[in-house]
Design brief:
Elements: E1 2-5, E2 26-27, E3 31-32, H1 34-43, E4 48-53, H2 58-67, E5 78-83, H3 97-102, H4 105-111, E6 115-120, E7 123-125, H5 129-139, E8 143-151, E9 159-163, E10 169-174, E11 188-199, H6 200-211, H7 220-231, E12 234-238, E13 254-256, H8 260-269, E14 297-299, E15 301-302, E16 305-306, E17 308-310, E18 313-314, E19 319-321, E20 324-326, E21 329-330, E22 335-336, E23 341-343, E24 346-347, E25 352-353, E26 358-360, E27 362-364, E28 369-370, E29 375-376, H9 380-386, E30 388-389, E31 395-397, H10 399-405
Parallel strand pairs: 1-4, 1-6, 4-5, 8-12, 14-19, 17-20, 18-21, 19-22, 20-23, 21-24, 22-25, 23-26, 24-27, 25-28, 26-29, 27-31
Antiparallel strand pairs: 2-3, 6-11, 7-13, 8-11, 9-10, 9-11, 15-16, 30-31
Length: 407
């Protein structure tokens, strides 16, 4: 059974997660972030899936109900949405990632899975979990932790594993100031990806032990994994050995799109001629809720008023009407009106771009109406006053920000 932890807000995305959880944030024109973990599970042959939700979960639950309701109980398949529902105590929500599994032990037990794959629902990657499961069985580990090699300087933001020559984990530290490095390589570290494999019986045993431990934060990375490293057998699994790559993808791809800059960059990367992440790989499809939409449309063919898009992704139900789109991503249902220009920007669904507007290096939230003539991305001081502008110069625009312009 795959169990996806999808209850986090993702506070570093600021206003993008004011009304939705981070796993429900749109990505790639027509998908949501959570679709990557779920698609990996389906493509890996896992047909029992649970998703634990908590923070502002309505749009996430709606997406899951619409796009992931094809699993059938009569085929020994299941898909459970598991909101925090005070099932243990009427005063208790999910207190941590481990608690989000602990509170649903009875539901998991009803299916009788022999192994559990615990997944984070907020990362962008393609991975065959079957290979990680096989390693877990072969090594006889109590827990197997997926990890990725990163430069030591970047490892300070991760949970970091210190391993021996056989990749057995001998120490696990969360966001260390001086990360342990790989044997024989003082410049690189192993960072946890928040993906764990357990034998179900052992997982339940550890969850119950942790629930009875005073002072525990009920978290896999802070409590359960370090305990198993010290008292059991914890094994590292290299992401490079199970990362799914098409012939077009030059290297293993994994992204945490937890900041506005990272989110913008990962989306804009998709517009490259040969992107690092191949969404067109039919051997490992990205499943999602497929809306029924008309094709994208480009109209007007006059000098200065030509509907066009270059080096861009344009989803269904978009109309580019006398507007110029360059190296940008237009999600479902965007309307770009005459004489406007969109450059290096990520436009989320059902947005309206007014006439003569100019948007450069922006992320525009879903459902926003950009006024006629609005210019963003050319005056840093003005942008910083009106919108949320990052240190890299990316402007996040939401409807309340637009509404304040006319106040």
């Amino acid at each position: 059974m795959a169990y996806v932890l999808a209850g986090g807000r993702g506070s570093r995305l600021f206003e993008m997660t004011d009304t939705r959880a981070k796993p429900a944030v749109y990505f790639g024109g027509k998908s949501r972030i959570i679709d990557f973990a779920l698609s990996n599970a389906i493509n890996s042959g896992i047909r029992r899936i649970g998703v634990a939700t908590q923070y502002k979960a309505h749009s996430l639950i709606r997406h899951l109900q619409r796009g992931w309701n094809f699993l059938r109980p009569e085929r020994n398949e299941s898909f459970d949405i598991l909101p925090a529902s005070q099932r243990i105590s009427e005063f208790q929500w999910y207190e941590g990632t481990a608690d989000a599994v602990f509170q649903n032990i009875d539901i998991i037990q009803s299916y009788g899975p022999e192994y559990m794959v615990i997944l984070a629902g907020d990362h962008i990657y393609k991975m065959d979990y079957e290979l990680m499961l096989q390693q877990h069985v072969d090594t006889g580990a109590d827990v197997t932790v997926a990890c990725m090699e990163v430069p030591k300087a970047e490892a300070v933001g991760f949970g970091v594993m210190h391993v021996d020559a056989t990749d057995r984990i001998i120490d696990f530290v969360e966001k260390p100031a001086d990360p342990p490095t790989l044997p024989g390589d003082p410049d690189r570290s192993l960072a946890s990806l928040g993906i764990y494999v357990f034998r179900t019986a052992l997982l339940f045993e550890q969850l119950r032990r942790d629930a009875d431990t005073a002072g525990s934060s009920r978290d896999f990375g802070k409590d359960l994994i370090p305990w198993l490293v010290e008292h059991g057998h914890a094994q590292a699994h290299r992401f490079s050995s199970s990362c799914v790559r098409s012939p077009e993808e030059p290297r293993a791809y994994w992204r945490d799109v937890g900041t506005v800059d990272a989110y913008w960059e990962a989306n804009i990367d998709l517009t490259d001629v040969v992107p690092q992440l191949d969404l067109y790989d039919r051997s490992w499809p990205l499943w999602t809720y497929s809306e029924i939409t008309p094709p994208a449309k480009f109209v007007h063919d006059l000098d200065g008023r030509r509907g066009s898009a270059v080096s861009s992704l344009v989803a269904g139900d978009c109309i580019v009407s006398g507007s110029t789109v360059h190296r940008s991503l237009l999600s479902t249902g965007v309307r770009a009106h005459s004489y406007s220009s969109i450059d290096e920007s990520v436009i989320l669904p059902m947005t309206r771009i007014g006439r003569n507007a100019r948007l450069t290096r922006c992320v525009v939230d879903a459902g926003v109406t950009i006024p006629d003539g609005l210019v963003v991305g050319e005056d840093p001081l003005l942008d910083g006053h009106r919108f949320r502008r990052t240190d890299r110069g990316i402007c996040l625009i939401t409807q309340p920000m637009i509404d304040r312009l006319g106040a």
